[in-house]
Every structure is written in C-alpha cells, then in structure tokens.
Amino acid sequence: xxxxxxxxxxxxxxxxxxxxxxxxxxxxxxxxxxxxxxxxxxxxxxxxxxxxxxxxxxxxxxxxxxxxxxxxxxxxxxxxxxxxxxxxxxxxxxxxxxxxxxxxxxxxxxxxxxxxxxxxxxxxxxxxxxxxxxxxxxxxxxxxxxxxxxxxxxxxxxxxxxxxxxxxxxxxxxxxxxxxxxxxxxxxxxxxxxxxxxxxxxxxxxxxxxxxxxxxxxxxxxxxxxxxxxxxxxxxxxxxxxxxxxxxxxxxxxxxxxxxxxxxxxxxxxxxxxxxxxxxxxxxxxxxxxxxxxxxxxxxxxxxxxxxxxxxxxxxxxxxxxxxxxxxxxxxxxxxxxxxxxxxxxxxxxxxxxxxxxxxxxxxxxxxxxxxxxxxxxxxxxxxxxxxxxxxxxxxxxxxx
Length: 401
Known about the structure:
The protein is mainly alpha-helical and 401 residues long. The chain folds into two domains: 16-202, Growth Hormone, Chain: A (Up-down Bundle); 218-396, MFS general substrate transporter like domains (Growth Hormone, Chain: A), CATH 1.20.1250. It has helices at residues 14-51, 56-84, 87-106, 110-137, 141-174, 176-184, 186-195, 218-221, 224-253, 258-286, 288-303, 312-326, 329-340, 346-375, 377-396. The longest helix is centred in the first third of the chain and has 38 residues, at 14-51. The protein is globular.
C-alpha cells in the first residue's frame, strides 16, 4: 500500500528525489537562457519593426502574436506534459524558440517578424508549462516547493532585467538582424542540457490512483480552491501588466522625463526581486495563503496612491512598495496551483493558468485602455486597486461544502 498524502499535495516519485539536488540548478540555467532570449526578443521585435517602417498598429499586433498561440495551446501543453513527461516538451519548445529567433536574421522583413513572434509564442508555451511542472516535481514538500518556486521567480526576474539590456546593447553594436542571430544561440544552451539529461525523461507528476481519462478542464475548475487561485493568479498578472503599460503614460502626463520613468519602473522590478528573496521565510512563518492574500491587499492599497503624487522620488517609493506586494504573487500562485492540482494533472492545471494569463494579456489592455481613453489614467489605477482587493477577498473566502 502506498502511503497516503494530503489531498491536492503532489507526492514526488523516488526518481525525483534522486535527480532533485543535481538537476534543479541545471533547470534554473535553462530558465535563465530561455527567459533572457524571450524577453530580449520583445525588445528586438519592436525596434526592428520600427527600423523597417512598421506602423504602431502593426507593432501592437506583433506583440499580441506572442500571446495568441499560448492562449490556444497552453491547456493542451499541460496535458501533454502530464502524459509524456517534461523533457520532450522542454526540448522541443526551447529548440522552437531558437528557430523562431533565427527567422528575422535569415529574412529581415516584416512578414518574418510576424512568423517569428508566432513561432516563439507557440514554442515557449510548451517549454514554459513543462518547466513549471518540473520545478514542482523536483520539490520535496511545502518547504521545498516554496524554496524552488521562489528561486524560479528570482531567475525569471533576473532574466527579465538582463534580456532587454542584452538586446539593446546588441542592437547598438551589431544591428537588429545580427542581434537576432546572437540571441537565438542562448536557448540552445538549454537544448544541449536537455539533450544530455536523459534522466529527466523518467520524471512525471504523481499519477492519480483512479487513472480516469479527463476530456476537459471543467472538473479542474470545479475544485473551488484551485479555481480561486487560478482566477486570482490572473488578477495578479493584471496588476503587473497594467503598471508596465500605464506608469509610462502617467509619468509622461505629469511631465516626468524618460529616465525618471525608467527609474520608477526599475524600482518596481528591484522590489519584486527583493521580496522573492525573503518569500520562503514569510511562507514558513505565515503560510502560502496568508502571504498571497496580503500581497494582494498591499498591491490594492498601493495602486490608490499613484494618482496622489507627481514627484519622481515619491512615485519610485510607491512603485517599490507595489513591487513588494505583487512581486511575490506570480511564484506564490504557481506553487499554490501545483499543490492544489489533482495528482497527475499538475501540468494541465499550470497550462490552464497560462491560458487564463494569456487571455488577460490580450483582454486587459483593451478593457483598461477604454477606461483610460474615457476617464484618464487615474481611474485606471483605482480600477486595478479594486480588482486586486477583490482577488484578496475571493481567495480568503471560506469554501462551502
């Protein structure tokens, strides 16, 4: 008889324990390489499109292409990961990202940029679901999962800072097309690691005892704690995205220079990095749910403060506090979703998370853009504050039997 484990808690396979200490650092190297190239490509595609004479609406469409295929494929990618394991989706996804990055170098024209964005987005989703699942599989218990997902968040934050810098300096020194060639080599580091790590093929999430086939995600959504975490995770992403979109607009409207706006946004990123360093200690003391809830309420309170200030120094301080709040939301939502997923369906649950997130990537700018056009930027911050507070209320509500 197998030892029972708590409902929703993923139990590691014996292979996971053997590979955990050796492979988690290699996994983080793969994460760094893939996210660095992914974030860098978003800077490259915008600037290369401008260089090629694209209109603003075309640039917006190019960026949207990154999210279209993940929206359609994320749930399937999760199911595929649960069925095949993590190695092949990560290997093929990383290779697909590298191939997509090569297209603008080989064919430096607008159509190649569209094809590149679509291929990068479609490939990245298979890698992304699998690697998040792998981080959970290689984690031992709640404490190990907290530590690994926190470190995963730190690597993601670091790559999100380094990738655009690398792309910008490369463009200045080597040009747009050649920069695509260089950045295409970065994910190949992950491809090589995966190609020579056959042991990863044996790593799967723990299977359900019943092994019943599941046609769709409806019974995942019927799990109230999981459903609430999925929804609230999307709300946290909205809080992060809207800051990136609207802080430059608000800063410009009150007369801040571009460098001052950059410093304000940089303070947000720095705070997100800092809070992920101490997140494991906070989770040990107060628990995952409590930290997640208070991060939402802190973010909600902070958003109300933005329209009150026009000083760059004060706005940077407010942005830092906001980063402390919503900065731990994404890794916390990932670890909660992994822990609350039914045995054998953690990849599918993480894929469903990405489906919701990519829907937010497309829908949120349209909805809040309408609010901003009609009422100005200030009400956008207030509306997002209410959204984050609503997420905190939702996830702390007691589950009815």
